[in-house]
Design a protein that fits this description.
Length: about 190
Amino acid sequence: MSKLNARTIVALVAAALLVLTVAFVGVLAVLVRNAEEPDVTISAYAHGKTVTVRPFSYCAVTMQHCSILPEGKVDGTVFATLTCEPETPDCHRGRTAELEVPAGYPLQLSLPKQIADAPWIAQLVYALPSGEQVDRVISRNDYPDRALALTIDSTPEPDLRLIGVELQLPILARDETGNEFYLPHAAWSISTA
């Protein structure tokens, strides 16, 4: 039997390293391809604190293939009739994020490109001292330049106090009588009280 010389040993080690590298790259490619896409999130900031706001609800624009449905009662809304599809086994329940926004401090929202580029609306919910709610709506149309950040006044008038914000990606829908209306296929909800 002949002895292995240094060149043969180096060649065998190099071949083994090449095989290991190809196997590692193959496994990594399969893992990346099969990885779940993360939820589209919003960052909310107020009074020195930041929270990540995951979707409250998220469906395809056809209102099918929902991957996130609201956690709480949704009677009287389109979400009351929706269920997780069998092809979306990772479907889960969305929650309202909580972030205290003291009176006089703004709420700042950082929007990812997927939302900033879409036709979005935000429902701002204020409360009067009597407890009565006052809703205001802002939309992408209020920001001629694509806004990646929004600043929402917590007290736009002396008696109003911001108690919540719901950012929505609306779609146009039609009921059985032919009436057209907007409804959200995706929403992010923040309680600020």
